[in-house]
Amino acid sequence: MQMQSRSLNSKITSNWKQPMATQEFTTGVSLHSHTSVSEETLGFIHAMFVVMPGLKRVFDYYATCSERHGVVLDFERANWRPPLQPKMAYDLEARQIQRLGLNSLVSITDHDTIEAAMLLRTVPSSRHIPVSVEWSAPYGETIFHLGIHNIPSSVGAEWMRRMAAFTAESAKTSVESDRKLLAMLRELHESPQVLIVFNHPLWDLHKVGAAHLTEVRRFLKEAGRTIHAVELNGLRHVKENRETARLAKETGHLVISGGDRHGLEPNANINLTSAVSFTEFVEEVRVDRVSHVHFMDQYQGRWEQRILRSTLNAVTDFPEFMPGWQRWDERTFHPDKDGVMRPLAELWPEGRVPLVMQGIVKLVRLGGVRGLSAPLSLAFPGVNRVERGMGVGMEWV
Question: Disulfide-capable partner of 32 in 209, 213, 258, 280 (CB 3.0 to 4.6 Å)?
Answer without folding.
Answer: 258
